[in-house]
Specification:
With 348 residues, the protein is an alpha/beta fold. It has helices spanning 6-16, 28-40, 72-83, 87-95, 140-159, 174-186, 190-193, 202-221, 227-234, 237-251, 261-273, 292-298, 315-333, 337-340, and strands at residues 50-57, 98-105, 120-122, 164-170, 256-258, 281-283.
Length: 348
């Protein structure tokens, strides 16, 4: 595990205080610049080179009627990502971020054209998970395989010089799995963990709360205790891949920008499995999903923006990328008091 460089933290903070502005006047932008300096090994880091990976998989719990969309939509959206038509495609292009898609467990067949706008990697562990309300979503072996796919995906991006990793997800009913993990790992109530997901009405949300409560109780009675066991019991293949993706990034000393509810649930699994992973995580936004803030609190993270998003796909993280680039550009390119010939307050 790479360590945070305390000397670089102090040097970056000192550099901030030489720039032609009142100290602290750029607020959290200053904090972000210092945060990245300590992790990228440079007092004034160059532009970020971000990689966005969307992991896709299906969930057997969709059979319980917890989503507004049928399971087939997962595969259809994978095709949309590959063809360049989804929100994350637009946002990744705008931010200049590399985007790829990993099918780690899509249940239904879907077309994947030879000409791919976003590269698709098909490494399905299974055709979706089993119904977590009734039985374990995955075997330990399946969960571990998905985790390792995420790990290898992160290492491949890092080998291409990417120094900020962003994980997205696509999977009908995956907010149900994320809510189960939130309940199991934070102690929040099912009612406070379950939101409206893809747009279900309040009546179906009440049903979804019951499904989550029953799933967590079933797993608890089975003796589930540690984070990876909870992941296998009530998680998802794409959630396991995300947890492995984040862990590998942290172990390699590469920062991670989290997206919304599902990606943060995966991050909490990773941090509970290895607490040192938490030092490498940054929260992009606060999702409209009810349980997201409980997850952020458990990770001791504060989101950068709140735009009432609940799309997933890494869309919220992609939206924040220009803000991060601006924070680093200000830190790197502003004149100092000395170079600009401007009197510092301390000189008066």
């Amino acid at each position: 595990m790479s360590r945070i460089n305390a000397e670089l933290t102090a040097a970056a903070l000192a550099h901030q205080n030489t720039l032609t502005k009142p100290p602290g006047s750029l607020g959290r932008l200053e904090d972000l610049a210092v945060w990245f300096a300590a992790r990228l090994g440079n007092v004034a880091p160059a532009r970020l080179m971000p990689a966005i990976v969307v992991f896709a998989a299906d969930h057997g719990v969709a059979a319980e009627g917890v989503s507004a969309f049928p399971m087939e939509v997962t595969g259809q959206m994978v095709s949309n990502f590959v063809n360049g038509g989804a929100a994350i495609n637009v946002l990744a292009r705008e931010a200049g971020a590399a985007l790829s898609v990993v099918d780690v467990g899509v249940a239904h067949d879907y077309p994947h054209p030879a000409r791919q706008i976003a590269p698709l990697f098909r490494t399905p562990v299974a055709r979706g998970t089993r119904n977590l309300r009734r039985e374990a979503a995955m075997s330990v072996a399946e969960c571990t395989l998905a985790w390792n796919i995420g790990r290898e995906t992160a290492l491949e991006a890092i080998s291409r010089g990417k120094n900020l990793l962003i994980g997205g997800e696509m999977g009908i009913a995956n907010t149900t799995a994320a809510a189960c993990l939130a309940v199991a790992l934070t102690g929040v109530s099912p009612d406070d963990a379950v939101g409206n997901g893809t747009g279900i009405d309040d009546g179906r949300r009440v049903h979804k709360v019951a499904v989550v409560a029953e799933a967590v109780e079933r797993a608890r009675k089975a003796g589930t205790s540690n984070p990876r066991e909870w992941l296998a019991e009530v998680g998802g293949l794409e959630i396991a891949a995300l947890a492995g993706f984040y862990t590998a990034a942290a172990h390699a000393g590469v920062p991670v920008l989290l997206d919304g509810f599902i990606s943060t649930a995966a991050a909490l699994v990773a941090v509970r499995d290895d607490p040192s992973v938490g030092e490498w995580l940054l929260a992009s936004h606060a999702s409209q999903e009810r349980g997201h803030r409980a997850l952020l609190t458990a990770l001791n993270l504060e989101s950068l923006v709140d735009l009432r998003l609940r799309l997933g796909e890494a869309s919220g993280a992609a939206l924040v990328l220009p803000l991060l680039q601006s924070a680093l550009a200000l830190h790197r390119d502003m004149a100092t008091f000395a170079s600009a010939g401007v009197s510092d307050k301390a000189d008066q």
